[in-house]
Amino acid sequence: MAVPALRGSMSFLRQSLTIASKDLRSELRTKEALNASVAFALVILLLFSFAFEPTEVETRQISGGLLWLVFAFAGALILNRSFARELSNDCLDALVAAPISGAALFLGKALANLALLVTVELACLPVFGIFYNVPWTQQFWPLMLVMLLGTWGLTVVGTMFSALTVNLRLRELMLPMLVYPIMVPGLLAAVQLTAPLVMGQPLAGDLIPWLRLLIAFDVIFTALALTLVETVLVR
Amino acid sequence: MNPVQVAGVWKYYGDFPALRDVSFEVQPGACMALLGRNGAGKTTLLRIVAGLARPTRGSASVCGAGTRDRVTRRSIGILGHGISLYDELSAFENLHLFARIYGVADPKRAALEWLERTGLERVRDGLVREFSRGMRQRLAVARAFLHEPSVLLLDEPFTALDDRAIALLQTLLRDALAAGRTIVISTHQLREALALATHVALLVRGRLAHTGERTAEMLEDTGWLYRHYGEA
Questions:
Q1: pTM of the predicted model, to two decimals?
Q2: Contacts of residue A94 in chain B, CB cutoff 8 Å?
Q3: Which CATH class is domain B1-75+150-160+180-232?
Q4: Which of A39, A53, B17, B93 is the most buried (most CB within 10 A)?
């Protein structure tokens, strides 16, 4: 009984990784979304730095919000392309008609988006550290954990709505309008956790409930997306 | 059990009925030409059989199972309006990708074999976006046949094909019929379709106006079917 289940899980994972590697390969060849997203994120960080010249106290207050605002807006550029990429040549039809579950397709796309978003974030952090004079590496691994959890939440919700809006003419507008309100609990937790961590405070005490909220957000929306995506793809 | 079964299928787009109570079956090893004017519902019907759309009412099954069944989908090869290939990937990468997705035993070998069969082995590493229209179509044919499906669903397969690609597709379809595979082909190109077809189904405004064996008079006079069962 356990062997077929294990084989099924391996097949699911293998198909997800096949889709993820296809998406990453396509994106790395064109760099359409990645270049736009990195450029947008860096410009926003630089403009904020020049416009407000924040003091250390102000930086402490705004760093979490600023970073996640940039990640969320820059992320929309990547998430928008996720299913839109499948429209040219009717590739989405070929994937939906193929013997791959909607959940495996979704997970593959979400993993590729996660990799691209994390790349954008890793490009932003050193720039943020230099221009805002922030010792962000002091709590490096806890910060990476929060970034990964926050980004996964953004990716899961964004990829789901990318599938939902793929056939809409105004999808570039609709995706942020649908994703950001739903992301509020996840983004709030990520902002509350990121601000102290980039200033060197440990991940403990009052921060733990926010970490729990972020994990719960990720688990709930991942389960919802994996369950509902098949209905979204076949109409 | 017949490999393709459609029972009482209705499909609405908003208030518009694209398909109205369509029922037919395709026998094993048969080739059904699905005919009809533009907007008759051919593509909608093929999409329902392929599991790409859900009927509003009624049901479709392939090889005895629902069209969204994973095993069923492995047995279907589909060639739609688009080529369903990634422009940013090479010819080999595209076929390898679909061979992996379809669970082909040796994806690399299958991809190379089909590149050779479609005469594209010399450009295996070329990106699809650099291919001519004919080459893209041949690669799309390879993608549809790659996993050796038992049921082939082809939507306007001869449209925009060059002579070489038409000849290739006709050979592959004849081989598939000889191997006992089942084919449903939707097309406006009556001569090519009727030459292959063993059966015909004519859709008129979403309703099945006629279904039956392809007769000699249909082949001799391609307008015969429309004159007898279609709209004036």
A1: 0.90
A2: 78, 80, 84, 98, 143
A3: alpha beta
A4: B93
